Amino acid sequence: MSDALKSLQIEQEDFKKFRADIDVITCKYSLEFPFWGVISERCTFSLTKTLVPTAGITATGHILFNVDFLEKLRQDHGKLYYKKVLFLVAHEISHFAFEHASRKGMRDHHIFNKACDYAINLLLHYQFEKSPEFFIEGGCLDEQYEGMSAESIYEKIKDEEKEDEDGNDDDMKDFDDDAIGNGSVTGRERRVPMPDTSGKTKAEAQRIISDWVKAGTQEAYAVAKTQGKLPADFDRAIRKLLRPQIDWMAALRQKLRYGVSRVEKRDTSWSTPNRRFLGADFIFPSNVGPASPKIVYAVDTSGSMSETDLTQAMSELDDIRKKFQAQVYFIACDADLHSSKWIMPHEELPTLSGGGGTDFVPVFNHLIRERIRPDYCCFFTDGEGNFGDEKPPFETLWVLTSNVVPPFGEVVRVNVPYEG
């Protein structure tokens, strides 16, 4: 047995069986389920004794399997073992392909993972033609959630679900790749290398990786479609997922720039002559108005925005406030205010906290009570909250992750992917 396997307490024979299993599974995908076969080329497959109790995957596509769990599947299901593992691998790849880790945002990890499982398993229910031979007993499967995204399922189950005492919700892991290497042994490296993100900001790196994942999903769909290997229900779901999304960041950028630039157009007054032209033959009016624009930036931390969306939005705010030298009153909130402070154009933006329900009224009441009159109030939320009975006395821009129609203000919608 190698020193690496000894340190992980994994038997050489178990590792050999694992590598053979992966070869069988990926070959089967290539022949009969090309959608998963193409995406699997972007994943790394590793075996562990402790990092996960069953199986899990990171945001970068590193899949972990617990050696004892695989052996139990083999013993319990005999000839059906490979069908179960086919389902298991496709399930983990789905978390990666549909970018669930970045879409979790501030949501409860356990409950959002369960919502993702419901959405994924329904898709696989279609992919494997509803055959019970593939499905692993105890998994989340309920046809009442058909056609719903993970975000929508989360809203439906969040008040009913409680975190399991055994904590076996490890599908979406947030491990560093180096940490995984210290606790697992790799059976197959990814065949399509990840793009290099060295020297990039966090937002830029997330966007590059996201584009790489989406490219893989689009390629997988094209290959499977060409081969006629997509069941009708599964085909419809994937087409909705790949449907072109609006460039919500461009829309937000346009509205924010308009909101902060228009207040710099100063009015003129004849009461005080313009001192730059006191020596001229004519009297010129002086400019009056605010010295710099003021923005309120309120973020609903109850879990309505994905981590990627929030990172992009914060980066956009950072760029706009520096360009226009705008002061920002930053608010993190859910049903209550968790933080609120003025931030000068070159100060660091704060981190987010929260996780409760959603109520917009305390934010507006706070601004009115503190006599803060912003030129523009930008609110990031899913809109599932109390708007109150009165329109606040300032312009409001809602960045929404849902189809909720606010009773006042302008709206930019973030298209949440269909699939789950």
Describe the structure.
This protein is of the alpha/beta class and 420 residues long. It has 2 domains: 3-242, no CATH class; 248-413, Rossmann fold, CATH 3.40.50. The protein has 14 helices and 13 strands. The chain has helices at residues 3-8, 12-32, 34-40, 67-77, 81-97, 100-103, 109-127, 150-157, 177-183, 202-226, 232-242, 248-261, 307-323, 361-369; strands spanning 44-48, 55-58, 62-66, 172-173, 184-188, 267-273, 285-288, 294-300, 327-333, 337-343, 376-381, 396-400, 410-413. A 6-stranded mixed sheet has the order 10-9-8-11-12-13, with helices on one face. A 5-stranded mixed sheet has the order 4-2-3-1-5, sandwiched between helices. Strands 6-7 form a two-stranded antiparallel ribbon. Helix 13 links the parallel strand 8 (294-300) and strand 9 (327-333). Helix 2 (12-32) crosses helix 3 (34-40), helix 3 packs antiparallel against helix 10 (202-226) and helix 7 (109-127) packs across helix 8. It is elongated. The two termini are 42 Å apart.
